[in-house]
Amino acid sequence: MNDDRPGAAPNYTTAALTMMAINLIWVFGLLWAIFGFVPVLLVALALHHGIDRLSARRNAG
Question: Does the keyword Membrane apply (predicted)?
């Protein structure tokens, strides 16, 4: 019988955050090219508000 246990899972946090930033940049660039700068600002403000709400909810609990 094999008693080898799997090792710890690799930490992909940096890779995930890097890809999220790259995707956010191209999505903002696409929105800017199609609709202009104002919708990009509105999306950025909505994301900021959502992140603040998640942070407040996480700190409250």
Answer: yes
